[in-house]
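Reply to thread "Modeling small-molecule complexes from scratch"

Following up on the discussion above, here's a worked example others can learn from. I took a protein sequence and the SMILES for nicotinamide-adenine-dinucleotide and predicted the complex. Inputs first:
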Amino acid sequence: MNRTQNMATLLEKIQSKEARVVVVGIGYVGLPLVVELAHAGYRVTGYDRDPSKVKQLNASTSYIEDIKAEDFAEYVKSGKMDASTDESVIKEADCVILCVPTPLKKTKDPDMSYIEGAAQTVVRNQHKDMLVVLESTTYPGTTREYLVSELLQGGKYTLGKDVHVAFSPERVDPGNAKFGTRNTPKVVGGCTPACMAVAKALYSHIVNTVVDVSSPDAAEMSKLLENTFRAVNIGLVNEFALICERLGLDVWEVIGAAATKPFGFMPFWPGPGLGGHCIPIDPLYLSWKMRGLKMPARFIELADAVNTAMPEHVVEITARALNEKKKSMKGSKILISGVAYKRDISDFRESPAADVIEGLLKRGVEVSYMDSWVPVFKEGEHSFESLKPDTSYAGFDAVIIVTDHKNIDYVRMAKEADLIIDTRNAMRPYGEGAKATIVRL
Ligand SMILES: NC(=O)c1ccc[n+]([C@@H]2O[C@H](COP(=O)([O-])OP(=O)(O)OC[C@H]3O[C@@H](n4cnc5c(N)ncnc54)[C@H](O)[C@@H]3O)[C@@H](O)[C@H]2O)c1
């Protein structure tokens, strides 16, 4: 029976798992979702413009470390799950979930081109009785003001009747072994009560807890609060790191001591700057929106200023430490240890390593890096290949720990290196008796 012959309502089809689902964008967010949908018993297709992801999914090969091929190979084999670069798969879909990127433009304004591209793809293949959910992080109002208005196609469709629209922010935390798609509560905001009922029916099959909010705007805003909370608190401890340095105090000790308070305090740790596709970017979607309303989002802007200055501060303390050793930066050889944006993952989008490297290159440093998670690292027009993990740390004037992967041999680093700039406090257990001079953030 094809889609048009099936007279069951959308809600019934979702409840009986007859509904066909298409996920648009099968990256870090979309792939785990496709797998959970198949796991829940839905027939699901990942639609992506990137043929390499489509090919890999169809070959039961995973390209995201948190998802193991064995987690989904049986679904591909049984025909429950596949991927396509052909947008007409949406014609057969009852539910479409958009998981496309939401980066910033060079001007730090939202780049909405991916959401717009994905929305237009749905519009071209739209039919009656569809649920469309946006999961990409974006400014409040996007779903209601933009997506709904596109999907109504000038009155061709009625909201909550023959098109259902909702926003449900993704909360995936790459590298988190404890919380994945299923056991992370999912906030859902429908555009009408009927939209909410349909969206909730789908998500309650794939996650343990669905959290209803009254509107898509509230759902959009809750995600921005989560990420702004992190960006602001990291900005605060980064500023504390600078203050402690000036006062001759160890910020790591100070935060560790404060964290012993069993209530009313949550530790955040300083570092070389923010990275990844979320924390450095998402809050700026909100500050952009508020600028348009002539109300500055001051905490966001201040945190952004503090956090984006951290890579340059790392370069600065490296220059000072070399100076102490009567060495200049120009012509020195510096190894970056870890370029992924956080520990034990391969994602290097927006990694502060890029800005640290750029700052070093500008000062005439010969830069190398080592990161077993990232074999090739591209920074502007430069492309670097990771050195072998057994390369001696002795051949460098300084080693800068940007990412504290667990598999790094810090004991050997302490023995071989001459100078270590430790932006993550990774050397704390290994500093005693080290040959290297260790300079912490
Ligand atoms: N990565 C995370 O940890 C994370 C966590 C929570 C939320 N998010 C949010 O989720 C969204 C997606 O992020 P991601 O990390 O999965 O991005 P990603 O780059 O890993 O994946 C996005 C995919 O969308 C595809 N794509 C782009 N435009 C398309 C189009 N018009 N049609 C079909 N495919 C298209 C790309 O080829 C890519 O494969 C973003 O808004 C992000 O802020 C990401």
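What I'd highlight from this example: Residues 309-440 form a domain with the Rossmann fold fold (CATH 3.40.50.720). The chain has 14 helices and 15 strands. Questions welcome below.
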